[in-house]
Amino acid sequence: MTPGDRRPWLPVALLLLQVPGCSSLSGPTSMTGTVGGSLSVQCQYEEKFRDIAKYWCKSPCLGDIVKIEKSDKEVRNGRVSIRNHPVNLTFTVTLENLTEGDAGTYRCGIDTSWLPGYLLDVTFHVVVSVTPGSLSLSGPSTVMGTVGGSLRVQCRYEEKYKTFTKYWCRQPCLPLWNQTVATRGSEEEMRSGRVSIVDHPGDLTFTVTLENLTVDDTGKYRCGIATILHEEGLHGFLPDLFFQVQVFVSPRSLLGSVHFLLLILLKVPLFLIMLSAVLWVNRPQWATCGTQSRPDEDKRRPSLSIDILSRDTATQTRGGRTSDPKPSISSHLIAKNW
């Protein structure tokens, strides 16, 4: 095989360096909601995908696809909506009014199949579970976000609780707890720091949004309705109607660390192998011929003896001693070369 025959594989190796890493798109691997409730899935992507279309579909993604282009406006398809948040490099998918038929495997994806270096779309799978729950108040049991991003929790209630005060708090939800945010019987958004809540009596839901997430936001929260002294014909204190929501916040730096490990363990060694191959293919030819590949050095050796011999002979001729010459340095050199 000639050196030129070894080079066609180099473009293939270069293509391997462009294979996207698993850090290009990330999010929760599983979500759980209750019948009649809702759940939200937040997907985090890299800066280079900011203006690329994102979508959500149920595997094998033959239909019921909800897709959003560059706009950050909400796009809806039936009970499923998707909204892009290019500021924090996330997009959120919300499934409302859940049924047991919504359980299954879904795909959170970015339309990259038309981009150079990408044969398929960048996606990851999310397993959605739907459990029977109380129709009085329902919603997701688990939500996930990333540091610096945001997440949204939608809680659904019955018609009879339309005028009740709704709230969100971090357990144990003690009185005067400063991490409680509640509605005031209207559709006005109420805010407490980075947490906001707004009631939607038209569709019997209220939505809680946590913004600019930190790792410390991880924990158990309560999505509830204040029912104390509200029930007609009953006196005294009644327990609030609520359900528990587990919030997980993953460090955003985890994406960078995964990509760094991929770079160190795969891309850098591959690049070094390619570089070594290029240097080997284009190496100087004398490196493979041993001592025989230096003809100039071999030619210079005898020429030194001949020059000395010529000068010796010329000196003896001028001195009249052409016969019976004495041994000279040249004779030793000639004998040594032989």
TrEMBL record:
Transmembrane stretches, start-end: 260-281
Keyword Cytoplasm: no
Region annotation (Disordered) ranges: 312-338
Segment forming the signal sequence: 1-24
Keywords assigned by UniProt, alphabetized: Disulfide bond, Membrane, Signal, Transmembrane, Transmembrane helix
Matches recorded under PANTHER family: POLYMERIC-IMMUNOGLOBULIN RECEPTOR (PTHR11860), PROTEIN CD300H (PTHR11860:SF117)
Protein name in the entry: Protein CD300H-like isoform X1
Organism of origin: Zalophus californianus
Gene name as annotated: LOC113938982
